[in-house]
Amino acid sequence: MAPAVFARAGEVDAAAAFPAADIAALADAGLLTAPLPTALGGDGLASDAAQVDGLAALLTVVGDASLTVGRLYEGHCNAVLLADRYGGPLATLAAEAAAGRISGVWNAERGDGPLATRVAGGWRLTGRKIHCSGAGSLARPLVTARPEGSDAPLMFLPDMRGPGIAVDLAVWQAAGMRGTATGTVVFDGAFVADADTFGAPGDYYRAPLFAGGAWRVLAVQLGGLGRILALHAAALGRSGRGGDPVVRQRFAVAAGGYEQARLLVAEAARRATDPAADPPAAVAYVDLARGSFEALALAGIDAARRNVGLGAFLGPDPLDRCCRDLETYLRQPMLDASRDNAAAWLLPRGGRFEP
Ligand SMILES: Cc1cc2nc3c(=O)[nH]c(=O)nc-3n(C[C@H](O)[C@H](O)[C@H](O)COP(=O)(O)OP(=O)(O)OC[C@H]3O[C@@H](n4cnc5c(N)ncnc54)[C@H](O)[C@@H]3O)c2cc1C
């Protein structure tokens, strides 16, 4: 599956459209159901801490094939995990996955975001979500919204095929991650039944699941960074410039950065999902990993661009697309705040996680 996804990624980027063929390939490979609990026909991949290495490896393989597909798949795993942890409608997600439809998590908002108003038998959502990946293609995304008068959101699984919902994909004029179909979704009184509403107010942001869960994004991004390193090496092989000591210096920075990132992400995944871990310590580790990963990834991209030269900015070579995708995907929420939180936790401990 992965080579076919990689082979299609250039077309997906050019079309800036939802990668429907790739999601179908994930479904055919059983990967849409795999995150679900075994009782619902899955492999328990999203929520079974014992399988964290398997989930991390899978996210990295998908990210290596295509960061856009990896981003969508990570959102699907997150939706399943949240529904599993907080009593959501897992049977609905299982039926959707069995039908080949992916879910996702739409939390980002600018300003106040959607409000949820209590009505008989459920809630009505009114307001706007931004940066919704798969908008117009996802049928049952997880959407957060605050009940009127509260700052603590609940989780909803609206049926996007129902009335009172409009999608705007024209806003996604992105340099990279073009094939994620990321858009704005406006809810105008869309009804969500109680059965499709879950979590106590604020559960969505509960530690360590929310902040710690960023390890999954890093696992996907690691795949993209590894692909850039491989394309960088291949380009130097073709040009014969790998014999130059300056070029080799830069390549060593990129390769060393990838290796550091690989070890960091594996450890972040382990700590974030360890049931015995102290939640603030686990979150601080993932926060530190996020900040460090960003620096390592930007250095890897910079080395590839400099060593390969103008060719690294020109299609149809996939190097340019992979760099654009990772540069864009690295823009994750509150990265500076993550570094700040990690430092605040580490300062009184001499900068170490272990005494
Ligand atoms: C490809 C892609 C797909 C996405 N898909 C989804 C999706 O499906 N669902 C979803 O919910 N989201 C999605 N997002 C959005 C994502 O979760 C983040 O909301 C988004 O990437 C935030 O980026 P930002 O640069 O605006 O971050 P920000 O956190 O706004 O950071 C931008 C800058 O502002 C600074 N900053 C932030 N807050 C403050 C502050 N209070 N004071 C001072 N400085 C501040 C930061 O340090 C940073 O320098 C997606 C993003 C991408 C790139």
Architecture overview:
- With about 350 residues, the protein is α+β, with helices and mostly antiparallel strands.
- The chain has 3 domains: about 1-100, Orthogonal Bundle (Butyryl-Coa Dehydrogenase, subunit A, domain 1), CATH 1.10.540.10; about 105-200, Butyryl-CoA Dehydrogenase, subunit A, domain 2, CATH 2.40.110; about 205-350, Up-down Bundle (Butyryl-CoA Dehydrogenase, subunit A, domain 3).
- The protein is built from 11 helices and 8 strands.
- The chain has helices at about 1-15, 20-30, 50-65, 65-85, 90-100, 210, 215-240, 245-275, 280-310, 320-330, 335-345; strands spanning about 105, 115-120, 120-130, 140-145, 155, 165-170, 185-195, 195-200.
- Strands 1, 2, 3, 4, 5, 6, 7 and 8 form an 8-stranded mixed sheet that branches.
- Strand 4 and strand 5 (about 155) form a beta hairpin.
- It is globular and about 70 Å long.
- It binds flavin-adenine dinucleotide.
- Flavin-adenine dinucleotide (FAD) binds near residues 75 and 182.
Question: Brief description of this entry?
Answer:
The protein is an alpha+beta fold and 355 residues long.
